Amino acid sequence: MAAPLTYKYIVAEDEPLIRHNVLKKVASLHLPLEAVGSSGDGQTALELVKTAYPHFVITDIRMPVMDGLRLAHYLYDFYPAVKCVILSGYDDFKYAQEALKYGVSDFLLKPLKTDELRTALQKIVLNLDAEHQNCSAMDTHGLSAEELNRLLTDYLRTNFRTDISLSRLSEQFGFSQEYLTKVFKKYNGETPLKFISRLRVSEAQQLLVREPEMEVKQVGEHVGYAEPAYFSRVFKSCTGEYPSEYRLHHVKS
User: Does domain 194-250 have CATH number 1.10.10.60?
Assistant: First the structure.
């Protein structure tokens, strides 16, 4: 029987006592979670994301240097596989609305209640356990360009590990490849295929360090590249290093 998965997380909170309390509460839940770092500001938390490769982040919404919303926004853009839970002492729905724009998993109010934290983290564990979720069929006719882009972006974020092509997207959404590319590039500044490559490489970077026993070929297959040589070329074009070089330079001995 395979060993149960353990998921890594970091806590970002500028009040040391609260930060310690959050770590203590998470540990008391006895979920398959491992704290791999904590910080007092969003910028330091971001550096931890780049080096500790967590599966999710628990962050306060108000912090110096970089606040929790900016951190959530950065994760949403560049580390979409890293989930985020926002903590706040401000009982104001506008913060929740802003956080939800960035794909935040949950928005919890302080003082933090153990039951609410347990529910939020159990949901994250379940989501992490359930890979390659398929989007249900969507009726996209009659949508505005902005609405179409939102659906297309959400679809790509969910399915970037699968075999996606412009022709398949055209069939899925009912629009021409040219129109989908034009709409996506207008709102995102890049083509759908470049967006997919960026997500895949970001996920591969995490796996290469987080799973040192996983073969480079398996990493490529996991993020959507069936051909190892092609995976290596794409990875180097994005990072300047081949996957094996990246692992060598970032895995601690």
Answer: yes
- Where does 7-129 sit in CATH, by number? 3.40.50.2300
Query: d(Cα 66, Cα 40) in Å, to the nearest integer?
Result: 10
- Give domain limits for the chain: 7-129, 145-189, 194-250
**Residue 165: what pLDDT?**
85
For the entire predicted model, the pTM comes to 0.59
- pLDDT tens digit string along 101-140? 787 888 888 888 999 999 999 988 887 776 333 333 344 5
Distances (CA, A) of 20 to 23, 49, 107: 5, 19, 19
